[in-house]
Amino acid sequence: MKETNNLTLVIEGTQAQDNHITTEPEKSFQRIIIPIIVSVFAIYLTIGMTLGILPGFVKNELKFTSLMVGVVIGLQFLSTLLTRAYAGKLTDTKGPKLSSKIGILLIILSGVIYLIAIFFSQLALVALGLIILARIVHGISESLSITSALTWGIGLVGTQKSGKVMTWNGIAMYAGIAIGAPMAIWMKSTFGISSVFFTLIVLSVISWLSTIQLPTLPVDASHVRTPFYKVIGLISGQGLGLAFSAIGFACISSFISLLFAAKNWGNPSMAFMIFGMSYILTRVFFSSFPDKFGGYKVALVSLLIEAAGQLLICLSLTETMALLGCALTGVGFSLIFPALGVLAIKKVAPQMRGTALAGYAAFFDLSLALAGPIAGLIAGWFSYQAIYLFGAISCLLSLFIVFSNQHK
């Protein structure tokens, strides 16, 4: 495989020395990061598509409860959480290119299992069991895919641009979710639900093809690895802040469609789209803020905005108020991952970067795995809107944690 001279120099300089000094032109950065962004976007389209149709399918067609909806949605994130340590170790020891390939193959497998579940949709328990299996496989694939993408990007461009790498990967992630959910709803109504799951397989192939020309990263086999639990301890302050901030996102992704249906507010796709567009535009226009102003300041302001958005959804009397709440949640949540992530990866050696990123993201997974079932219980006991009071309180807890860990 041939690489340009520019790209080779960039890779050698940033990997071998990791001296935090960049001589790389912006054009080379774009040539490296755009294929990774395309890959991540395709992967998160598959996640967004399942979020768009599974809650309604489980509740309305298979006739299960809101709690089971939360369990089904949360299982993918729990699966991702439980495999983060493996994903980090594989990425650090075998390279992100291999872990990315394995992740993509698992998405293809999950798509096949989803299709089989649809075939057995008249047998509700069998279909539910297959969907649960597919969610678990999909979760493992996400763990491998995003850990490898972040490690690959930072390894190729250097840690001095780690915030930018995380920011643009985040744009791809939530653009995929924001576009995938309404796209899946439209595809289901137009072509049937099977077309949605077949598209997961097609998107997996696109994800693989987009990064096939990127070079591998060298692996330092002689490096003495820090145990995963110690890495978790080092980044726990940033991780817990991320975990509580992610609950607001989990509440929207899991239950906003059911809230809109209960209130007869029209097409819930608008909620996903407005959240996603707010999230993306914030990252596009303010992507340099974590590196420029520091992760701590950016996180505090972001959490206040997100809390306000969650409260607005909780108190909303109209569809417009709820959509505005989704927009504020997107703006607030947008920069929290890179803001706290920049602080987290500075606490480990370059050879442990994949493990640190996996551990940091594991807090996000834990949040989403727990938030779905808890939100389902809240909906059953109170109402769908009460879920977003839970989201607002969680943002305030995150604010307290970030403030407490300012100098740690």
SSE topology sketch:
Blueprint: H1 5-17, H2 26-61, H3 66-82, H4 84-94, H5 96-119, H6 124-157, H7 162-191, H8 193-210, H9 228-234, H10 236-263, H11 269-286, H12 289-293, H13 295-315, H14 319-334, H15 336-345, H16 353-381, H17 387-404
Domain Major facilitator superfamily (MFS) profile: 32-408
Transmembrane segments: 32-58, 64-83, 104-134, 140-158, 165-185, 191-210, 231-262, 268-286, 298-315, 321-345, 357-379, 385-403
Keywords: Membrane, Transmembrane, Transmembrane helix
Summarize, please:
GO terms for molecular function: transmembrane transporter activity. The protein is built from 17 helices and no strands. With 408 residues, the chain is mainly alpha-helical.
Please identify the structural class as seen in this structure: mainly alpha
CATH architectural category: Up-down Bundle
Radius of gyration: 20 Å
Helix content: over 70%
Q: How would you sum up the major sheet?
A: none
Provide the succession of SSEs: HHHHHHHHHHHHHHHHH
Strand content: under 5%
By DSSP (H or I, 4+ residues per run), the number of helices equals 17
Write up this protein.
The chain has 408 residues and is an all-alpha fold. It has one domain (24-217, 227-404): Up-down Bundle (Growth Hormone, Chain: A), CATH 1.20.1250. The protein has helices spanning 5-17, 26-61, 66-82, 84-94, 96-119, 124-157, 162-191, 193-210, 228-234, 236-263, 269-286, 289-293, 295-315, 319-334, 336-345, 353-381, 387-404. Helix 11 runs parallel beside helix 14. The longest helix has 36 residues, at 26-61. The protein is globular, with a radius of gyration of 20 Å.
